Amino acid sequence: MWNLSDIAKSVDEWLNSVMSPTWVLVVEMVVIGVLAIALFAVLGLVLVIMERKVAAYMQIRLGPNRVGPKGMLQSLADTVKLLVKEGLTPAGADKFLFNLAPFIAMITAMLLLAPLAFAKDFQIWDLNIGVLYITAVSSLSVIGILMAGWSSNNKYSLLGAMRSGAQIVSYELSAGLAIMTVVILTGSLQMSEIVKSQADGWWLFKGHIPAIISFVIFIIAVTAETNRAPFDLAEAESELTAGFHTEYSGMKFALFFLAEYINVFIVCAVGATLFLGGWMPFHIGNWEGFNHVMDYIPSSIWFFGKTFFLIFVIMWFRWTFPRLRIDQLLNLEWKYLLPISMLNILVVTLIAIKGWHF
Amino acid sequence: MYTITEEILTTPSGDMVINVGPQHPATHGVLHLLITLNGETIKKVEPHLGYIHRSIEKMCESLSYRQFIYSTSRMDYLSAHINNHGCALAVEKGLQVEIPPRAEVIRVLMDELTRVASHILAWGALAMDLGAFTPFFHAFREREMINDIMEETCGARLTMNYMVPGGVMMDIHPNFQRRVKELLKQFSEKIDEYDELVTYNTIFINRTKNVGYLSKEDAISFGVSGPSARASGVSCDIRKIYPYSIYDKLKFDEILYTEGDSYARYMVRVQEVKQSLSIIEQLIDNIPEGDFQAKTKAVLKLPKGEFYSRVETARGELGVYIVSEGGMTPYRIKFRSPGYSNLSALDHMTRGSKIGDLIASMGTLDLVIPDIDR
Amino acid sequence: MFLKEYISDVYGAVKSMAIGMKRTLYYFTHHQEIITQQYPDNRDTLVLPERFRGEVVMAHDEKNEHRCTGCTACELACPNGTIKIITKFDISPEGKKKKAIDKFIYHLELCTMCNLCIEACPTNAIHMAQTFEHSVFDRAQLTKVLNKPGSKLQEGVE
Lengths: 358, 374, 158
Fold this sequence. Notes:
The structure holds three protein chains of three kinds. By secondary structure, chain A is mainly alpha-helical. Chain A has one domain. Chain A has 15 helices and two strands. Chain A has a two-stranded antiparallel ribbon. In chain A, a hairpin with a 2-residue loop joins strand 1 and strand 2. The two termini of chain A are 31 Å apart. Chain B has a single domain, classed as Cytochrome-c3 Hydrogenase, chain B (Orthogonal Bundle), CATH 1.10.645.10. Chain B is 46% helix and 12% strand. In chain B, strand 7 and strand 8 (332-336) form a beta hairpin. Chain C contains three helices and seven strands, in the order H-E-E-H-E-E-H-E-E-E. In chain C, strand 3 (83-91) and strand 4 (97-107) form a beta hairpin. Chain C is elongated and about 105 Å long. The chains are: A mainly alpha, B alpha+beta, C alpha+beta. Chains in contact: A-B, A-C, B-C. The interface between A and C is medium-sized, with 15 and 15 residues.
């Protein structure tokens, strides 16, 4: 059967047969780098058009429908436009930091790609502390935003960056605790282990109500962490015009824009891996026939399907809810999400120790 | 001329001064607010006006009594009909003409349709200011139907110039009644959606409850009128307290809330839409037959004197004050526009609150900038 | 007691949001509710109401005759100075001098489509057309002469 891991394996074997192991490593790293960038570009294009279509249908509009079939090439045209636009640097800006910030935002998004399991045995780096790595690296993204806001020499940007700093730092707590529940249930930080532990059912269903609660908290927290509405206070169009990227234009703006979507993809992929079984097909108990049919669907389709479903949910939030105010945003975290998830983690620990989960 | 210098970017005490506007997504036009901030907390809001001043009052002095009415559609463009109505009333006071009953009913119908269109736009724009984009488009669906009705009967969608001294310019279109009934049906189906999407939403309630508080006394002393004042418990509906046209014969309630916060201002608008729809329902099948325009002379001349009329626009009280020297053109025209006094309360309402609250307060005041500047 | 309030708070909040999300999901899945009009594509089928005020035009019949006597009522009624009527004196076959319009100049760029000129016209010579695509590259093109060259006053219109 057509399988991503088989392709990867055969490429690896072929490379090993033509050159020394050191060179194989170098070539594979380059190939992976190119593939990662290609994935980013494709994801950026797909997610932007998806967002615009989702928004349009919810707003009883048609959305982009001119460029390409049903407007599917609209985001490509937009990219071309952004590429040829002048990337302005304001006179009073800290030029080095100003130009560095979009790359920081992009690189942190890129680093997070490493431990994701895209399909069965198809992973860039299955390091044994995968979950920890993700929580650690994702907190770096605030640096890019702070840098952009500070160096722009714009008051709106500064306000946006400060908001974003407070927001990301606080929401990491409950996102981390929500991730911890799955780690406790699995007993491993390794992504492949977590996926394997869900072979007989996803944690969302196996972990009873506490798992559902932590899944909801995870979705809320990562929405906030990626600065998406209703938590888009860092951009807050009607308050701060465009927040931290007010002064950015052209491709530098596009990098921030892309980083946002890549972050959304990554957090959704993490959510899908932790709670929805990653690339594991959907199985129901003893329905042999049904399970067999499910196995026929390639594992990469399962992974991307789940991820895109979560992305849709996050977009759905964005186009339904108004924005929170900064103090309410922090209230929500410190007065609601954090206590609930702390209580939740106790219950989950009890479940894990007693082995009450399925 | 006002120039921005280094000194005003920060105050001596180190507070940050930011310019919201003249180009800003939340000001819905060219309003310039100079905001002094301490962190996220607002210390002072200073509106700077004049970016869209077109001196309509002065222009009107050189226009005849028929001509000047069209320019008032450009003041508060969201309640164009009501502005025109106010001007027509003032001129009619001077002319002492009797308005045919059919014209009166058509006028009130148009006024109320305009009010509905304005309030639902305010609803959508408020939601958009607070970050929810979807309600804005849903509001436009119904507003579009009203605009189509206007287009069919009056010939224009926004600046209709339909009211003339002595009645209305044209008779209603044969389709008018059918289409208004369609609109009423559409509203009865979709009005719950407005509540589902915005009114009951926890985030929306948190963003607007206890935000931008304006007490009854302050509302009176700032001269706030319209829905914004009624949310503070000030009974100021001109349609009730100084009834003009046929409003004294109609059954409708003056919506009064006493909370005085943004949520109350929002609720007043939502309830007023329902009241306006009930007025339309009462009238739509009872349009009397007859002339749509009283016979007036080709050249209108007002007797020497002063004429004042007041109408309730979607934003508050519009006063039209005409001084006539007996000639073909007014000697002086003064408009008391609701937006100007409503804006004056903004600083008082938002002091000490967050930036997000400023947006919510501004959205619920429902400012139309050309109305403020004229 | 506090805990009960806390939980009912959370429950109420989640419920209100779920109601809103249900509504947007309904629109996401019901595409027949879409109200977009694809304007330049539907140009052929686009019907504007007959009262729509797009621009002032002067009707000419098949004999190239209009109904404008050049009384300048419209010029006086116009609040913006949009209309300028230049008159001339036609000499009728009997040798009588008769006032007629030479040029009916209409400045579309000044016009606010207020309909006052149409109302003022005693002979129904002008009316509003339903055109609305008025953009041109040169402002001079917006100044129009409404009476066609060689046209004259219809018989019997005073």
